[in-house]
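Pipeline run #58 for the internal structure catalog. This entry was flagged by the ingest filter as a single-chain record with no existing model, so it goes straight to prediction. Upstream metadata was stripped on purpose; only the residue string is passed forward. Reviewer on rotation: M.T. Logging verbosity set to normal.
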Amino acid sequence: MKFKVPNMGEGVEEAQVLKVLLSPGDEVRKEQGIIEIETDKATVEVPSPTGGTIEEIHVAEGDTITVGQLIATISEDGAPTAAKESAPKDEAAQEAAEEKPEPAEVPAAAQEEPEAVETGQRALEETKPEVEEKDTAAERPPAPAPKTGGPPVFAAPSVRQFAREIGVSVREVSGSGAGGRISMDDVKRHARERPAAPAAHRQPLPDFTQWGEVEREGLSKIRQSTARRMALSWSSIPHVTLCEKADATELESLRQQYKGRVEKAGGKLTITAMLLKLSAAALKSHPGVAASIDMEKQEIVRKDFYHIGVAIDTSRGLLVPVIHDVDGKNIMELARELTELSGRARDNKLSLNDLDGAVFTLTNLGGLGTGYFTPIINHPEGAILGVGRAVREPVYRDDSETFEPRLMLPLSLSFDHRLMDGADGARFLHWLVRAIEDPVVIVMEG
């Protein structure tokens, strides 16, 4: 079978090959990693969809690969080995075979689509020249005029689709093939060479070497992605951040009471794990916080699922793996899954599915001593909760008219003001504070 690059996640179009884990002739098991890649979001292994023998590897370390590109040829278990001569010799040959039009009449439906008209007309011109020599202008009906001006563009449908996906107009691309035919490489070259759109946040740096020695380091894929996503979120989403303290004394007492039981089950009971459960309950009570806003269609997208991302600090940068269906799991299950997911994030073992689908994000900087802060929303989500370090403080109790030491937890909720008003954010945050202060809510929801 021909194994191609699978869908790498929301918004991820390309990746860099870090390692090739197998060689031609090696046996491969189903779900065994064939290559290790670095995407904009994480470093992951791409697993084999089947068991068998590696016939050929079509990528090398350092290559930049895209969705749908050929990775390996695998002879499946129990299946005869396909003759290599019958397959394209390389990617260029495969692309040429894909682009070669089959002899066919232009279907009537194609007359309504300029791209299909051009492709079908070209097929007639290239595959039936002897017919054209006999035809006359009077005998041959005129070809429909393209809806867009300019000469016809010769490019295969797959090339056109690729160009649309990366935001390139094929009419702007210079083709290197016969008669100006446009290939995938032509589109890629055009995309690389076109000038970058000016951005207000791009400012030239001064020459720091005039003051002393400097060292430059290239941005990793993850850091590049973080920079782009944070700039997008901050520039396109009007943020509002509300801050409040929650009395987490009883919550911490509950954590201490059950942490041993959770450790025996293979997890670690943290405040974050408990807040996951409470956040899912809060989102159910305030579904607008889990929504997204679609400004292009002027619609609010409401979601009936509760997948929550958790920001994890790793040696390669910030990763936000997602725990799915938080509302359907108890705290012990969430603690185990969070422990396992955090370990895989730090060990570079996350899968592509681990990073997509969140409706809300938790980021906890309490372990680093941070109090209140302004977390940036993870686009296209509508809100994010920042958790600071819990500190014991004297709190005045109306019932006893005395000050008592209580463990106070700083919370910072950033939300999209296009999606919610201040009162909506305040209600959500106040509900969450009350749930933290009354841990029975956790038991009721778990």
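catalog note: The two ends are 46 Å apart (CA to CA).
catalog note: The mean pLDDT is 81.
status: ready for reviewer M.T.
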